[in-house]
Amino acid sequence: MRCTYATVQRVTYATLSEELRMPKRLDTSFHKRMIAGRMADPEFRAEYERTRREIDQVDSVIRQLDELREAAGLSKAELARHIGRDPSSIRRLFTAESNPELLLVASIAEDLGAEVRVVPRSSRRRRRSSAVARRTSTA
Amino acid sequence: MVAWDVVYYKAADERVPAIDFLDGCPTKVAANLLAVLDAVAEAPPPQYSGGGKWEAMHGTMGGYYEVRASGPGREQFRLFCVLENADQAELRRRGLPGPAIAVLTGMRKPWRTAFTEREYRAARALGDDHRANFPRRIAE
To answer: Is the model's pTM score more than 0.90?
Structure first.
């Protein structure tokens, strides 16, 4: 294509009109700024961090089960059949469309040769032990 | 996977219903709700995320998502959201740099009670207004 003045003009007008047709790009940083502001409140920060830890644990369990399912080459429907559940309950579980039911989680883990465990945090154990020690010493 | 944005619908009168709602929540409840939003935004759909406190709604609220939290006296708090997930051209048309969770509003109710269809209709009206705007009208 020969690059004439008319071609450049056409391209420029096309780009300009494209720019004009497009809505402005919004600033989406409001949420992050708001969270940062609320984090200054120790009560907010403690609860936010506690909730995130709780959520991360549940999410991690479900995602690990999904990874095991994939590694076993099982479709969600096949897994559902294995544990005698409706396929939609398995689909909902792995796509966060429902609150995970512990019995369902345990059944899936069992079928995939895994198990659900509660592992105490060492720091919490230490805190609890020291609390027991304090109670004992004051008794 | 890249994290999504969290944006807040702004009404024509400049009010941001979700923020008004969060400001009226006990601090711990607001922290709960916002922690769920961040968890979902960081590991967005279709991944499992939100620890069971993020749920797709059904029936007349199909297409909407709710964030759930409990407060003092087992009072129930909900944030209603829609997903802004489309191809780049469509997202640009909406004014968004990438996919996002759009938070519309929140509602609270006593334990073991349900929201009325009228209340849900009011939430959907905000969703309709949100989706009718190009670019989206959000808190900035």
So the answer is: no
